[in-house]
Amino acid sequence: MKQYYILSKVRRKKKKYMNGAEPIVAPHRLERQFEASSPNEKWFTDVTYLLFGERTLYLSTSIDAFNREIISYVVSESQNLALAMKTVKQAMRGRKVKEVTLHSDQGSIYTAKEFQAYTKQNGIITSMSRKGNCHDNAVMESFFGHLKSEAFYSQKITKVSNTTVRKIVLEYIHYYNCVRIQEKLNHLFPKEFREQMV
Q1: Which of 2, 12, 102, 112 has a 20 to 30 Å separation from 24 between CA atoms?
Q2: What is the pLDDT of residues 101-121, one digit of tens each?
Q3: What is the pTM of this model?
Q4: What are the chain's domains?
Q5: How far apart are CA 19 and CA 29, in angstroms?
Q6: Would you say residue 136 has pLDDT above 80?
Q7: Residue 28 gets which letter from DSSP?
Q8: Which residues make beta-bridge pairs with 69?
Q9: How far lies 190's CA from each of 100, 141, 153, in Å?
Q10: d(Cα 147, Cα 21) in Å, to the nearest integer?
Q11: Cα–Cα distance between 121 and 31 in angstroms, integer?
């Protein structure tokens, strides 16, 4: 084409945004400060794939930085805005959430206008990891690693029904909050630590 002095135009790919709205990216406010001095000061949230059932399931979870307690979880067949909204609403139930900082990655479910508006209306301050940096949300990465290793891989679970996967997740979260001791929590389990410290 060059020899005939013809230049081709390269089409730029249009970015697709959730519901057509441009994403709202929150600052990296926590800057890897993973500890909290009181409950409902810092929350972490994320979604992971569960590839152990008949179909892929998505586990959305929130953790309180104060005692590493799982304060909400939702298992779904879709990774969408509804999943993120259900998780944060469940976490808010019965808790004082004004000025809690909620940290997530820059996934489209968290940068969605609806999610950002809802958290703002309820006094929640959002924080986000830097793009492509999973270590900024190490609290969630650590929990998901423990869950998959202890509840699935060590039990040699590869393919079971989706109902069984959901049951395993429920049982593991109860075990994690109410039985599994953590060195960082003075060798107590999360609920026990909260009860002793608050």
Answers
A1: 12
A2: 999 999 999 999 999 999 999
A3: 0.88
A4: 16-197 (3.30.420.10)
A5: 26
A6: yes
A7: -
A8: 64
A9: 19, 17, 23
A10: 34
A11: 24
